[in-house]
Amino acid sequence: MNIPLKSLESPAGDVFTPGLEGVLVAETVLSHVDGAAGRLVLRGHELGQLADWSFEAVLALLWRDLGPESLDETQIRERLGTARMAAFERMTAALPALEGLSQVEALRLLLSRLPDAEPQCHHLVAVASVPVFAAAIARCGRGLAPVQPEPGLGHAADFLRMLHGVEQGPERVRALETYLVTVADHGLNASTFATRVIASTQAGLFSSVIGGLCALKGPLHGGAPGPVLDMLDAIGREENIVPWLTDALNRGERLMGFGHRIYRVRDPRADALKRAVAALRETGGRIAFAEKVEVEALALLAERKPLRSLQTNVEFYTALLLEAVGFPRDSFTNVFAAGRMAGWTAHVLEQDKVGRLIRPQSRYIGPAPA
Ligand code: ACO
Fold first, then answer.
1. Is the keyword Repeat in the record (predicted)?
2. How large is the ipTM?
3. Mean pLDDT, all residues of the chain
4. Which member of 67, 262, 299, 305 lies 3.0 to 4.6 Å from 35 by CB, making a disulfide possible if both were Cys?
5. Alpha-helical runs (H) found in the chain
6. Annotation says 260 is catalytic
7. Which member of 260, 323, 347, 350 is catalytic?
């Protein structure tokens, strides 16, 4: 029998928004991105008000009233320390399996060994595990043995210590802490949406955040900062800036670290990170060069896309900051995941409370059956 094509149409009607721009799919108490004003609010706090907060304090803020128990900053710091130790013990046997994988693929593999069924505070375990795994993966990439966590340290300080093998000075720790806080949550970005979709199926927290990591790794999302440094290196000298950027745009390439789906003005996170990186003594020459590239890139983008306000995004100064505190560039997405794990876990806890399966519609545009 021939079914008329019309009867195959989606009952949701005609509105189709590629990329889901402007489509509301969740309510959240966690964060708000105001793209027109360039503001980011985390649970009632402007990003600028969180500048000197610890990562643990931001976790306490995001998890408040959502987790199985309410923990303050000090309790979270203690629990994360213990959980980092457990993550280290769990990880050691798996390291040979990471051979041949990129750093983010290796992180994905190690996270996938966390059992969804085990009864524990999965949000704490997920946050605690990422720096342990990411530092070990970065060290393995350089032929170095992993360094055991020091549970008495703060999360950011221990992350740097596990990366370098020795404790780092307060300036570097503060810079990383600022980074982790700045990227902790950011509305319904692609990775957080992916995380919430998986959480809505009740697949479990670890499965949900692994989905988030998979979405994060793409160059249009969290995979951009490594390529920002590649771009700065490829440009190399001041007299190359304009010709290099012009050639890249003529080839139809996107300039990494610029543009954003929501922001039509400067990403407030770019300025937060620029301040943090400028406070580090060792970045003087690099940051001055990057600023020149930024100015020229913005001028060219304004000329090429006068109708679309393309501004510096979070990834531009992320690249400089993570380089300055000693992370290898192929580990940048994993460090992003260490910060964004705060938001992903909070969104999973929030989605669990909503309890509604996320299942949108598509419109069928294929052939009708013969
Ligand atoms: N360089 C050059 N052109 C750009 C850039 C860029 N960085 N960003 C957007 N454009 C162009 C697009 O090619 C498009 O041109 P067209 O109209 O001629 O096709 C126009 O500007 C509009 O862009 P959109 O596609 O509407 O932008 P969208 O909202 O889909 O993309 C995105 C946002 C993915 C961030 C984009 O700006 C981009 O690719 N930037 C570079 C990668 C990057 O920095 N990613 C990190 C983002 S921050 C984060 O996720 C943490």
1. no
2. 0.96
3. 92
4. 262
5. 55-63, 73-92, 103-112, 122-141, 155-164, 170-182, 190-200, 205-216, 225-235, 241-250, 268-278, 284-304, 314-324, 332-354
6. yes
7. 260
